[in-house]
Amino acid sequence: MTVLFIGLAGVLGALARYGVSLAVDPYTDPALFPLATLLCNFSGSFALGWLSGGGALRLGWSERKRIAVTTGFVGSYTTFSTFGAETVHFLDSGHGWMAAVYVMTSLWGGLLLAWAGGRLAEARKSGGEAV
């Protein structure tokens, strides 16, 4: 049954990611900078950090629900494969500097947001103030 919930959450995560692209891409040029992918990866990193850091426990979620949302929804919402393909596209089109900016922004931004989400969940879990 858990596998079914992961799959259903994965469908929702993929649709949410597509929705972000529909909302963002008309206002940006994904060929110049893939903002929709970056936003999905940043918000997904924060969400995964928060849920894994105690946010799911704070919400009273069962282990099944936590796994479905983190593995299914967040796993399909964030998109490492698209990040890789977009980076290669920058390199292939002679924009090595943009590839470097995108890789560093994605890596450090994702790590920072995952850390911040986890710290926020821990602070709330222990009754402290949010960081």
TrEMBL record:
Q: Which reaction does it catalyse?
A: fluoride(in) = fluoride(out)
Q: How is its activity regulated?
A: Na(+) is not transported, but it plays an essential structural role and its presence is essential for fluoride channel function.
- Which keywords does UniProt give here? Cell membrane, Ion channel, Ion transport, Membrane, Metal-binding, Sodium, Transmembrane, Transmembrane helix, Transport
InterPro entries, sorted: FluC
Kindly list the places in or outside the cell where this protein is found, as annotated in its UniProt entry: Cell membrane
Enumerate the GO terms in the molecular function aspect.
Answer: fluoride channel activity; metal ion binding
Q: Which residues bind Na(+)?
A: G75, T78
GO cellular-component terms in the record? plasma membrane
A Gene Ontology annotation in the biological process aspect, one of them, is: cellular detoxification of fluoride
Signal sequence: where?
none
The membrane-spanning stretches of this chain are 32-55, 67-85, 97-116
Q: Which topology term describes how it sits in the membrane?
A: Multi-pass membrane protein
Superkingdom, taxonomy of origin? Bacteria
The record's similarity note reads: Belongs to the fluoride channel Fluc/FEX (TC 1.A.43) family.
Query: Function, please?
Result: Fluoride-specific ion channel. Important for reducing fluoride concentration in the cell, thus reducing its toxicity.
Question: HAMAP family under this entry?
Answer: FluC
Q: What is this protein called?
A: Fluoride-specific ion channel FluC
Q: Which organism is it from?
A: Paenibacillus oceani
